[in-house]
Amino acid sequence: MSGSTTDNAPEDEQSGSSETVEPSAETEDEKVAAVRRVSAAGRRWRAAQLAGCAALLAVALTGGSIAFGALRDGGAATVASSSSAVSPGLMASGDLDAGIKAIQAHLRTQPKDFGSWATLGLAYVEQARTKGDPSRYPQAEQALRKSLKLSADNEQGLTGLAALAAARHDFKDALTYADRTLGQNPYSERALSSRIDALVELGRYDEASKTADLADARRPGIPVFTRYAYVHELRGDVRTARRVLEQALSTATTPGDISYVAAALGQLAWNQGDYKTALTDYARALAADDTYLPALEGRARAQAASGDRAAAIKGMEAVVARYPLPGPLVELGELYEDRGGEGDKARARDQYALVDAWIALARANGVNADLDTALAAADHGDKASALRAARAEWARRHTVHTADALAWALHVNGRDEEALPYARQATATGYRNASFRYHRGIIELAVGDKKDARTHLTSALKLNPGFSPLGAREARKALKEMAR
């Protein structure tokens, strides 16, 4: 935190004045470089698409956003977060922007209110999550550190820093801040939730499970229920996960909570290949908030898996037109490739180029995007870059997702003997993930283990026959060739 803005209240973002933080010259240079790389890639795009993409990317130069997202589990969030990092009232009826303006106005008259600085920081984190604006992260950090400067180790400030660290994929720091908060208040719902998230994303599943049990005993409610469910899903206990999420949905009252929990139920059903239930759950989410991005994306994936490719493409095009996130961009690109019509290869390349742009802009705002890089580049980019990113992420944290990403990156680089132990580790917890099973089966086939390859490829398609537009096709092709 630097400069005089730390001692003054923020300016209204519509005024054109500085808010909580001014971007540094270094950050601006990184953003400019990111957009220039996109421009270079864009020269091969059609003119109409170039214009649309340029409009989405240009805002990075003025503190705007490229949507923030993650590539895993069909677009699920990186952590099993609650629907909001800020107060339910601030999120009610989608009034987060209005709430931020109200806090800014309050701080102009009460600049020493440490609680409001913390709330503003949390609101910026939430805005980055829901609206895809990574430029909010430096602003969030400055607001939160201002809060802690005014009142050292206050609970809101510490939990805000935990949420910010998790959003930037710095899960060690997230755990540190959560534990500092719990040292003061063992019943802090936000700190308990952040601790579960961090432990899950660090691959410390036994500790995450114990913390989820503790949180359920201390502070039962939607934030804890959703995390409790995810911990059970990671162990393959889908029945408990769904029961807990249904319980969470029955207690949800705000549109944000209803849409979040219903979409989580949809994702759980989709992972099991139950597309009818998934579509019903996504409809419940969209009835609460018809703009809720995870539900719109999930519905499109479920439509694709159900065989309604036209509706899926239309839906995913609408999603990426608003927020070009890595997950839906790759999904849309693969849907184009699977359709194989005139111009579809070029359309697919456009989506993959935008993934590179998103990653560059996310990194410019302090986000660790190595997992996104590894997953996207392995199939649709530079394979060597995919392996470097996967190794870097594995060095930071050992999870089923990083194990799978490293296994697949090694495979596409022709290093299947090295890949197999990681593929086995990715499937070791019992987590029911068709992509993981597919990757393991293909790697086993590459090392000559046809028996296990057949088992895992068949299992992937039985679990979720539409898990990927291209992956499912490749799994069927491999099984057919082995049957000859």
Automatic annotation (TrEMBL):
SMART domains: TPR. Gene3D superfamilies: Tetratricopeptide repeat domain. Transmembrane segments: none annotated. Pfam families: TPR_16. InterPro entries: TPR-like_helical_dom_sf, TPR_rpt. Residues 1-31 are annotated as: Disordered. This is Tetratricopeptide repeat protein. The lineage of its organism: Bacteria, Bacillati, Actinomycetota, Actinomycetes, Kitasatosporales.
